[in-house]
Amino acid sequence: MAQRAWKPWLFLAPALIIYLIVIFVPSIYTFYLSFFNWNGVSPQKTFVGLSNYIQLLTKDNVFQLALKNNLLWTIASLVFIMGFGFALALLLNRKLKGRVAFRGIFYFPFLLSGIVVATGWSWMYNPTNGFVNKLLASIGLESWTHAWLAEPKTALPAVFIAALWQGVGQPMVLFLAGLQTIPADPYEAAIIDGAKSHQRFRYITLPLLRETFVIVFATTMIGSMKVYDIIYGMTGGGPAESTQVLSSWMYYQTFKFANIGTGSAISFFLVMVTMVVIIPYVFYTTKKSHV
Amino acid sequence: MAASARTLPDMWFTWGGTLGSFYADNGMTKDLTQIAADQNWSAKYNKAALDMVTYNGKISGVPIHLNVMGMWYPKSVYDKAGLKAPTTFAEFESQLQKLKDSGVTPLAFGSKGGWHTMRLTEQLLEHFAGPQLHDKLNALDASWNDPAVVKTFEKLKEYTDKGYFPKGYSMVDPTEAEALIYQEQAGMINEGTWFDGTITAEGFDNSKFDVFSFPTEQTPQRASVFAEMFQINGESDPAKQDAAVRLGEFIADYITKNGHGTPATLNAPVSDATPHVSALLDSAKAGGFLITDQALPQEVVQKLFEAQDKVALKEWTPAQAAEEMEKAAQTYKSRKK
């Protein structure tokens, strides 16, 4: 019995030790540093209590904008990336000609690095020679042409469209995997009972995809909170800091300005905002599921 | 990261100003003052280069490059518009409209990242503030909420409103702005002594271009300059430190003999492949000011980039931009107290 109790721990130990050393301890140390004024190399760290957090919330207008942008980005990701991913999965789960090729085409951008996507889309948005403006002009919509990345109102949505193009493949594949685990029997029974297609979708497909939704929601949410590379590559946080997000502003504070305490405080905001949403959601959904 | 973990190599490349001072101020670099005296560096290296690698009276790096900035222009564009290099600020401004009328983009600047447009901003500031106030502003010893700063931002706004910059320039990559110059579709760009080599590397003929000093109309007429250097790890083994210094000097000599960029050494021969370097070096003889993104603390530099964009996008007035710059300077100073 005793052996049965400690055996799982023995198998977990290597991964747990690495996790503790690489993730947990540095996270706690980062939290500790968020209460100090420190440039990262000086032997002296000045304890400033909650001052870094207060400064961010009351005086740093870029941080406040970054927080707002992160929340908007997350909402947009959950609605559009999840939504389009789900719609594509439903479509490509049908017996269509060439559906395997289409699955590959839609998944392909997800395999590209964020910087590659950022470079390509930056050229597409180029105000003078970019594909987007050229296309609009060629179909008679010249008045719609725009310096998409150069204006604060359009910059973040323009970057998000690039991120949507890149990111939609991941939820699509996860939803497809979920859809393929649903057996045909309940659908056949429902058809015999006279259920219409929207009823089959509402009462069979959606409930049986609950676990997939948990996974997709969690990965999309965490990914959107951590968004960095595509923004850094396309706008560098500009114009006029209008596309800064928490990760990019944390990078600026930590590595460009050597304000380690402020950068650490931003990273803890990031963790806290993610936790506040994700923990209740995962608890709520897993309680209702069998996983 | 390496600095934070105290795992810096025996020597590393860096720029002068606030980028190199980070290591020196935190006691990570070897003090080379005695070595410089023993080996008579003052007879070997350009004084401006030595000044830019000196912090608190201590030489903290082996200078390798001294870069001088100037306004480069395609000769064909100037010929077509019937223009010659301007010698006064009024002439410079009148040329902008003439260049626009001739069908090119007068100012090839791309503000993505902020630093490219900053090169124009700092020239305007030198013109309006003059050398003394400009130096004080960079040292944060004078208020940025000053009429000279407001005038500088007013000019940026005016040039933006008149369409002198590329369309959507606040997010144009500097390399895209450079491409306009190579293709002779723009009037001028602010680049440094390396630009001869860059033009050639991009497959164009650098003899088709020329360069002039921005007419600040100040005395002395100063150019924007910056140095590149090797710093030596102050915690390395003394034998390795000596070897690192020798390697740094060897590289500086190699650069001098082979004409890579602008050497920091005195009387370096100028290669035929870089026909504009002599003129640029001469332009700095009367004096130079350290390029802004190395002169100011990095968080104040970032605020300057934000201010440039917000003025161009009409989110801040020039007066607001000057106020915000001063706020950023004060915040930085209070943090460092």
From TrEMBL, chain A:
A GO term (biological process) for this protein?
Answer: transmembrane transport
Q: Which domain of life is it from?
A: Bacteria
Q: How does it sit in the membrane?
A: Multi-pass membrane protein
Q: Where is the ABC transmembrane type-1 domain?
A: 67-281
Tell me which species this is from: Cohnella ginsengisoli
Q: Which InterPro entries match?
A: ABC_transporter_permease (IPR051393), MetI-like (IPR000515), MetI-like_sf (IPR035906)
Please indicate if the UniProt record lists Membrane as a keyword: yes
Q: Which stretches are transmembrane?
A: 9-32, 71-92, 104-124, 158-182, 203-225, 257-284
Q: Which UniProt keywords apply?
A: Cell membrane, Membrane, Transmembrane, Transmembrane helix, Transport
Q: Which residues form a coiled coil?
A: none
SUPFAM superfamilies the UniProt entry points to: MetI-like
Tell me which family the UniProt entry assigns to this protein. Belongs to the binding-protein-dependent transport system permease family.
Indicate where this protein resides in the cell. Answer: Cell membrane
Q: State the name under which the record lists this protein.
A: Sugar ABC transporter permease
User: Major location, coarse class?
Assistant: membrane
- Database matches in PROSITE patterns: ABC_TM1
Q: Name one GO cellular component term.
A: plasma membrane
